[in-house]
Protein backbone atom coordinates (compact mmCIF):
# COMPACT_ATOMS: atom_id res chain seq x y z
CA UNK A 1 0.00 0.00 0.00
CA UNK A 2 1.50 3.35 -0.95
CA UNK A 3 1.73 6.46 1.20
CA UNK A 4 -0.54 8.13 -1.34
CA UNK A 5 -3.31 5.66 -0.64
CA UNK A 6 -3.15 5.68 3.10
CA UNK A 7 -1.80 8.95 4.36
CA UNK A 8 -4.49 11.24 5.52
CA UNK A 9 -7.05 12.78 3.30
CA UNK A 10 -6.06 15.43 0.79
CA UNK A 11 -3.02 13.82 -0.68
CA UNK A 12 -4.74 13.87 -4.04
CA UNK A 13 -4.44 17.60 -4.01
CA UNK A 14 -0.95 17.44 -2.54
CA UNK A 15 0.43 14.75 -4.77
CA UNK A 16 2.67 17.10 -6.69
CA UNK A 17 4.48 18.11 -3.53
CA UNK A 18 4.33 14.97 -1.44
CA UNK A 19 4.87 11.99 -3.68
CA UNK A 20 8.62 11.92 -3.35
CA UNK A 21 10.28 12.77 -6.65
CA UNK A 22 13.86 13.69 -5.94
CA UNK A 23 13.14 17.31 -6.76
CA UNK A 24 10.22 17.74 -4.39
CA UNK A 25 11.99 15.80 -1.67
CA UNK A 26 14.99 18.10 -1.99
CA UNK A 27 12.60 21.06 -1.69
CA UNK A 28 11.02 19.50 1.40
CA UNK A 29 14.46 19.00 2.97
CA UNK A 30 15.55 22.55 2.10
CA UNK A 31 12.43 23.92 3.80
CA UNK A 32 13.08 21.84 6.93
CA UNK A 33 16.75 22.83 7.02
CA UNK A 34 15.90 26.51 6.63
CA UNK A 35 13.32 26.23 9.42
CA UNK A 36 15.63 24.57 11.96
CA UNK A 37 18.64 26.69 11.07
CA UNK A 38 16.85 29.98 11.63
CA UNK A 39 18.01 31.87 14.71
CA UNK A 40 14.39 32.46 15.73
CA UNK A 41 13.51 28.77 15.82
CA UNK A 42 16.75 27.89 17.57
CA UNK A 43 16.13 30.50 20.30
CA UNK A 44 12.49 29.47 20.70
CA UNK A 45 13.52 25.85 21.31
CA UNK A 46 16.16 27.02 23.72
CA UNK A 47 13.97 29.40 25.72
CA UNK A 48 10.70 27.46 25.86
CA UNK A 49 11.67 23.80 25.29
CA UNK A 50 15.01 23.83 27.13
CA UNK A 51 17.21 23.23 24.04
CA UNK A 52 17.75 19.51 24.75
CA UNK A 53 14.69 17.52 23.68
CA UNK A 54 12.28 18.99 21.15
CA UNK A 55 9.26 16.72 21.05
CA UNK A 56 5.94 16.06 22.76
CA UNK A 57 6.16 15.16 26.44
CA UNK A 58 4.53 12.47 28.54
CA UNK A 59 3.13 14.42 31.48
CA UNK A 60 2.67 13.25 35.08
CA UNK A 61 0.59 16.35 35.82
CA UNK A 62 -0.80 19.18 33.70
CA UNK A 63 1.61 21.88 34.83
CA UNK A 64 4.74 19.75 34.64
CA UNK A 65 7.63 21.57 32.88
CA UNK A 66 7.83 20.77 29.17
CA UNK A 67 11.48 19.71 29.48
CA UNK A 68 10.73 17.14 32.22
CA UNK A 69 7.80 15.63 30.31
CA UNK A 70 9.83 15.56 27.09
CA UNK A 71 12.60 13.68 28.88
CA UNK A 72 10.04 11.07 30.04
CA UNK A 73 9.16 10.43 26.39
CA UNK A 74 12.81 9.57 25.70
CA UNK A 75 12.83 7.21 28.71
CA UNK A 76 9.68 5.41 27.54
CA UNK A 77 10.98 5.05 24.01
CA UNK A 78 14.33 3.80 25.32
CA UNK A 79 12.50 1.16 27.40
CA UNK A 80 11.25 -0.30 24.11
CA UNK A 81 14.87 -0.66 22.88
CA UNK A 82 16.37 -1.89 26.13
CA UNK A 83 16.73 -5.53 25.07
CA UNK A 84 18.78 -4.56 22.02
CA UNK A 85 21.21 -2.00 23.44
CA UNK A 86 24.38 -2.53 25.46
CA UNK A 87 28.08 -1.61 25.12
CA UNK A 88 29.34 -2.49 21.63
CA UNK A 89 25.90 -2.29 20.05
CA UNK A 90 24.81 0.62 17.85
CA UNK A 91 21.58 2.58 17.57
CA UNK A 92 20.68 5.07 14.85
CA UNK A 93 18.63 8.16 15.79
CA UNK A 94 16.87 9.66 12.76
CA UNK A 95 16.34 13.45 12.92
CA UNK A 96 18.35 13.83 16.10
CA UNK A 97 17.91 17.56 16.84
CA UNK A 98 20.16 18.80 19.65
CA UNK A 99 20.99 15.23 20.66
CA UNK A 100 18.98 14.81 23.88
CA UNK A 101 17.97 11.28 22.84
CA UNK A 102 21.45 10.29 21.66
CA UNK A 103 23.01 11.38 24.96
CA UNK A 104 20.32 9.59 26.98
CA UNK A 105 20.81 6.31 25.07
CA UNK A 106 24.62 6.47 25.24
CA UNK A 107 24.51 7.28 28.94
CA UNK A 108 21.91 4.65 29.90
CA UNK A 109 23.10 1.72 27.77
CA UNK A 110 26.78 2.52 27.11
CA UNK A 111 25.99 1.78 23.45
CA UNK A 112 27.26 3.57 20.35
CA UNK A 113 24.88 6.05 18.77
CA UNK A 114 24.81 7.42 15.24
CA UNK A 115 22.75 10.62 15.19
CA UNK A 116 21.62 11.52 11.67
CA UNK A 117 20.22 14.99 11.17
CA UNK A 118 19.64 17.40 8.32
CA UNK A 119 20.64 20.57 10.14
CA UNK A 120 24.37 21.21 10.43
CA UNK A 121 23.68 24.12 12.79
CA UNK A 122 21.89 21.77 15.21
CA UNK A 123 24.61 19.17 14.71
CA UNK A 124 27.30 21.62 15.78
CA UNK A 125 25.43 22.32 19.01
CA UNK A 126 24.84 18.62 19.42
CA UNK A 127 28.57 17.78 19.13
CA UNK A 128 29.49 20.52 21.61
CA UNK A 129 26.96 19.20 24.16
CA UNK A 130 28.27 15.63 23.74
CA UNK A 131 31.84 16.79 24.40
CA UNK A 132 30.70 18.75 27.47
CA UNK A 133 28.94 15.65 28.84
CA UNK A 134 31.94 13.37 28.06
CA UNK A 135 29.85 11.29 25.66
CA UNK A 136 31.48 12.22 22.37
CA UNK A 137 33.39 8.93 22.19
CA UNK A 138 30.04 7.09 21.97
CA UNK A 139 28.07 9.43 19.69
CA UNK A 140 28.79 10.12 16.03
CA UNK A 141 26.79 13.04 14.68
CA UNK A 142 26.24 12.73 10.93
CA UNK A 143 24.77 15.39 8.67
CA UNK A 144 22.36 13.80 6.21
CA UNK A 145 18.79 12.90 5.41
CA UNK A 146 16.64 10.04 6.64
CA UNK A 147 15.33 9.78 3.08
CA UNK A 148 18.70 8.32 2.11
CA UNK A 149 20.39 6.83 5.15
CA UNK A 150 24.14 6.64 4.40
CA UNK A 151 24.67 3.11 5.82
CA UNK A 152 24.43 -0.37 4.38
CA UNK A 153 21.76 -2.98 4.93
CA UNK A 154 21.62 -4.53 8.40
CA UNK A 155 24.07 -2.09 10.01
CA UNK A 156 22.24 -1.20 13.25
CA UNK A 157 20.98 -3.11 16.29
CA UNK A 158 18.21 -0.55 16.74
CA UNK A 159 16.78 2.51 15.02
CA UNK A 160 14.79 5.24 16.72
CA UNK A 161 13.30 8.62 15.96
CA UNK A 162 11.40 11.20 17.97
CA UNK A 163 8.98 13.44 16.16
CA UNK A 164 11.00 13.95 13.02
CA UNK A 165 9.00 11.99 10.41
CA UNK A 166 6.26 14.62 10.56
CA UNK A 167 8.61 16.79 8.46
CA UNK A 168 9.01 14.21 5.71
CA UNK A 169 7.60 14.51 2.21
CA UNK A 170 7.89 10.72 1.74
CA UNK A 171 7.26 8.76 4.94
CA UNK A 172 7.11 5.39 3.16
CA UNK A 173 10.69 5.93 2.08
CA UNK A 174 11.81 6.92 5.59
CA UNK A 175 10.36 3.74 7.08
CA UNK A 176 11.81 1.59 4.36
CA UNK A 177 15.24 3.16 4.96
CA UNK A 178 14.87 2.53 8.71
CA UNK A 179 13.96 -1.13 8.13
CA UNK A 180 16.77 -1.59 5.56
CA UNK A 181 19.55 -0.57 7.95
CA UNK A 182 18.26 -2.71 10.83
CA UNK A 183 19.94 -6.05 11.57
CA UNK A 184 17.63 -9.08 11.58
CA UNK A 185 16.00 -9.05 15.02
CA UNK A 186 16.77 -5.32 15.35
CA UNK A 187 14.22 -3.01 16.93
CA UNK A 188 12.65 0.14 15.56
CA UNK A 189 10.91 2.61 17.89
CA UNK A 190 9.62 6.06 17.01
CA UNK A 191 7.13 8.74 17.95
CA UNK A 192 5.38 11.10 15.60
CA UNK A 193 2.61 13.67 15.52
CA UNK A 194 -0.20 12.28 13.39
CA UNK A 195 -3.70 13.03 12.24
CA UNK A 196 -6.57 10.88 13.48
CA UNK A 197 -7.59 8.43 10.77
CA UNK A 198 -10.86 10.29 10.15
CA UNK A 199 -9.42 13.83 10.14
CA UNK A 200 -9.63 15.55 6.75
CA UNK A 201 -6.21 17.01 5.95
CA UNK A 202 -7.66 20.40 5.05
CA UNK A 203 -8.78 20.71 8.68
CA UNK A 204 -5.16 20.52 9.78
CA UNK A 205 -3.45 22.45 7.00
CA UNK A 206 -3.19 25.80 8.88
CA UNK A 207 -2.01 23.87 11.95
CA UNK A 208 0.78 21.90 10.24
CA UNK A 209 2.03 24.76 8.07
CA UNK A 210 4.72 25.40 10.71
CA UNK A 211 6.17 21.92 9.98
CA UNK A 212 6.61 22.62 6.26
CA UNK A 213 4.23 19.86 5.14
CA UNK A 214 0.64 19.76 3.96
CA UNK A 215 -0.45 16.59 5.72
CA UNK A 216 0.46 14.28 8.58
CA UNK A 217 0.60 10.50 8.66
CA UNK A 218 -2.02 8.53 10.57
CA UNK A 219 -1.56 5.59 12.99
CA UNK A 220 -3.09 3.22 10.43
CA UNK A 221 -0.66 4.41 7.77
CA UNK A 222 2.35 3.66 9.98
CA UNK A 223 1.04 0.29 11.19
CA UNK A 224 0.29 -0.81 7.61
CA UNK A 225 3.69 0.35 6.39
CA UNK A 226 5.57 -1.41 9.19
CA UNK A 227 3.68 -4.64 8.56
CA UNK A 228 4.35 -4.36 4.83
CA UNK A 229 8.06 -3.95 5.53
CA UNK A 230 7.96 -7.23 7.43
CA UNK A 231 8.43 -5.84 10.93
CA UNK A 232 6.73 -8.08 13.46
CA UNK A 233 5.32 -7.84 15.99
CA UNK A 234 4.35 -4.21 15.56
CA UNK A 235 2.56 -2.15 18.16
CA UNK A 236 1.47 1.40 18.92
CA UNK A 237 1.28 2.84 22.44
CA UNK A 238 -1.36 5.51 21.93
CA UNK A 239 -0.47 8.47 24.18
CA UNK A 240 -2.76 10.96 22.44
CA UNK A 241 -3.97 12.68 25.65
CA UNK A 242 -0.41 13.90 26.20
CA UNK A 243 -0.27 15.87 22.97
CA UNK A 244 -3.29 17.84 24.18
CA UNK A 245 -1.55 18.57 27.49
CA UNK A 246 1.66 19.37 25.66
CA UNK A 247 0.23 22.06 23.42
CA UNK A 248 -1.74 23.65 26.27
CA UNK A 249 1.51 23.74 28.26
CA UNK A 250 3.59 25.02 25.36
CA UNK A 251 1.10 27.75 24.54
CA UNK A 252 0.94 28.85 28.19
CA UNK A 253 4.75 28.88 28.45
CA UNK A 254 5.12 30.85 25.24
CA UNK A 255 2.62 33.43 26.49
CA UNK A 256 4.25 33.58 29.91
CA UNK A 257 7.66 34.13 28.35
CA UNK A 258 6.50 36.46 25.63
CA UNK A 259 8.67 39.34 26.90
CA UNK A 260 11.83 37.14 26.95
CA UNK A 261 10.98 35.83 23.51
CA UNK A 262 10.40 39.29 22.07
CA UNK A 263 13.79 40.37 23.41
CA UNK A 264 15.54 37.45 21.69
CA UNK A 265 13.45 36.61 18.62
CA UNK A 266 12.03 38.60 15.72
CA UNK A 267 8.55 40.02 16.54
CA UNK A 268 7.09 38.43 13.40
CA UNK A 269 8.17 34.96 14.55
CA UNK A 270 6.72 35.47 18.05
CA UNK A 271 3.46 36.72 16.52
CA UNK A 272 3.37 33.67 14.22
CA UNK A 273 3.89 31.33 17.19
CA UNK A 274 1.22 33.00 19.28
CA UNK A 275 -1.16 32.61 16.34
CA UNK A 276 -0.17 29.02 15.49
CA UNK A 277 0.13 27.31 18.90
CA UNK A 278 -3.55 27.84 19.85
CA UNK A 279 -4.47 26.09 16.58
CA UNK A 280 -2.72 22.99 17.91
CA UNK A 281 -4.65 23.29 21.16
CA UNK A 282 -7.91 23.53 19.18
CA UNK A 283 -6.96 20.56 16.99
CA UNK A 284 -6.24 18.38 20.02
CA UNK A 285 -9.47 19.59 21.68
CA UNK A 286 -11.35 18.52 18.54
CA UNK A 287 -9.64 15.09 18.75
CA UNK A 288 -8.01 15.56 15.34
CA UNK A 289 -4.44 14.59 16.28
CA UNK A 290 -2.83 11.37 17.42
CA UNK A 291 0.50 10.80 19.12
CA UNK A 292 2.33 7.86 20.62
CA UNK A 293 5.19 5.36 20.38
CA UNK A 294 5.50 2.77 17.58
CA UNK A 295 7.62 -0.30 18.04
CA UNK A 296 8.52 -3.15 15.72
CA UNK A 297 11.15 -5.84 15.17
CA UNK A 298 12.84 -6.79 11.93
CA UNK A 299 12.18 -10.48 11.42
C1 LIG B 1 10.96 18.21 16.21
S1 LIG B 1 12.66 18.01 15.88
C2 LIG B 1 13.00 16.58 16.89
C3 LIG B 1 14.47 16.47 17.22
C4 LIG B 1 14.85 15.32 18.12
N1 LIG B 1 14.47 14.05 17.54
C5 LIG B 1 14.24 15.48 19.46
O1 LIG B 1 13.25 14.78 19.74
O2 LIG B 1 14.71 16.29 20.25
C6 LIG B 1 12.71 17.32 14.23
C7 LIG B 1 14.12 17.01 13.74
O3 LIG B 1 14.04 16.29 12.52
C8 LIG B 1 15.11 16.70 11.70
N2 LIG B 1 14.77 16.35 10.30
C9 LIG B 1 13.71 16.78 9.60
N3 LIG B 1 13.74 16.28 8.35
C10 LIG B 1 14.87 15.49 8.27
C11 LIG B 1 15.45 14.69 7.25
N4 LIG B 1 14.93 14.62 6.03
N5 LIG B 1 16.57 14.00 7.55
C12 LIG B 1 17.15 14.09 8.77
N6 LIG B 1 16.66 14.84 9.77
C13 LIG B 1 15.52 15.55 9.54
C14 LIG B 1 15.23 18.18 11.96
O4 LIG B 1 16.48 18.69 11.56
C15 LIG B 1 15.00 18.22 13.48
O5 LIG B 1 16.22 18.04 14.15
TrEMBL record:
Domain named Methyltransferase type: residues: 92-190
Gene3D superfamilies (alphabetical): Vaccinia Virus protein VP39 (3.40.50.150)
Methyltransferase listed as a keyword: yes
Pathway given in the UniProt record: Amine and polyamine biosynthesis; betaine biosynthesis via glycine pathway; betaine from glycine: step 3/3
BP term (GO), one: glycine betaine biosynthetic process from glycine
GO molecular function: dimethylglycine N-methyltransferase activity
Record keywords: Methyltransferase, S-adenosyl-L-methionine, Transferase
Presence of the UniProt keyword Transmembrane helix in the record: no
Family, as annotated: Belongs to the methyltransferase superfamily.
Name assigned to this protein: Methyltransferase
Organism field: Streptomyces alboflavus
